[in-house]
Amino acid sequence: MSKIAVVTGAASGIGQGAARRLTGEGWTVYGIDVAPDRLEATRASLGGNFRPVVCDIASADAISAAFREIGAATAKLDALICCAGVLRVGSLESMSVEDYDLVFNINTRGTWLCARAALPLLRKAASAENPARIVLLSSIAALRPKIMSGAYAASKAAVSQLTRVLAVEWAASNVLVNAIAPGTVDTPMVRPHTQPGANTGYKSSGISPLGRVAQPDDIADVIGFLLSPAANYVTGTTIPVDGGTQAAFVPPG
Ligand SMILES: NC(=O)c1ccc[n+]([C@@H]2O[C@H](COP(=O)([O-])OP(=O)(O)OC[C@H]3O[C@@H](n4cnc5c(N)ncnc54)[C@H](O)[C@@H]3O)[C@@H](O)[C@H]2O)c1
Fold first, then answer.
1. 124 alpha carbon to ligand 1 midpoint, in Å?
2. Known catalytic membership, residue 152
3. Which of 220, 95, 81 lies closest to 153, judged by CA?
4. What is the whole-number distance in angstroms between the Cα of residue 251 and the centre of ligand 1?
5. 40: CB partners within 8 A, 6+ apart
6. Residue 56 in contact with ligand 1 by CB distance below 6 A
7. Residues 64-103: pLDDT tens digits?
8. Quick check: pTM over 0.85?
9. Domains of the chain, with CATH numbers?
10. Which residue in 30, 100, 152, 202 is the catalytic one?
């Protein structure tokens, strides 16, 4: 029987890369996103093992409805990968309350609500020998925040703390919970801010010490590890995948 995952934010960037990786390995993927057109394009590209589910994870009711729909279609879930997220750029002095609330509602509250809604289905797949998995998308910003993205950094630090507590609270259910903290990844989230001539106020971390920014596949590789038997004893941790970006301070000049 094929393994089954829910991927949020599946219509773009890292989520789409994870969905491509998993469907390519024979998984069935329920892809949640707020963008129906991009979800449909993803289904056309990935084929029938990708099942689009339109849902705005800023809404608790919409999340409940989406997981009811998924629960009606599948009896169990082997993995949940939470990639849906937003970035809003601005200083903490000038950022609007609406932008701050949006960042936390999607990145933090929506991620927690998706994990909670998925738990009953994950429990049905989980055993001590084959634990179910949750992978949350934190960010290197949780470990080393930058000016002009303070709300985003705080929302991702919260994701890493949720990861730790969920891992311990759900360990007895054989559900492993980990987070990935990418450095800059070349996706539609950051391209408007990093393309030549962009003047949005966003402060780029620049290329990593490895000499390039990450591609979604770099993150999908580590998601693949966290879903594999090799990670059966890994839970409650945030793994940086940043090419060494925050390993050591690089003094200017
Ligand atoms: N790209 C980076 O440099 C980077 C670095 C660190 C962490 N991350 C994190 O990785 C995750 C994926 O980011 P990405 O770069 O692939 O971004 P992206 O913008 O390419 O993809 C994010 C997806 O989330 C969806 N989404 C946004 N709001 C939603 C909502 N309310 N309900 C449902 N879906 C919604 C979007 O429609 C989009 O398809 C995010 O959590 C992001 O914060 C990204």
1. 28
2. yes
3. 95
4. 30
5. 52
6. yes
7. 999 999 999 999 999 999 999 999 999 999 999 999 999 9
8. yes
9. 4-241 (3.40.50.720)
10. 152
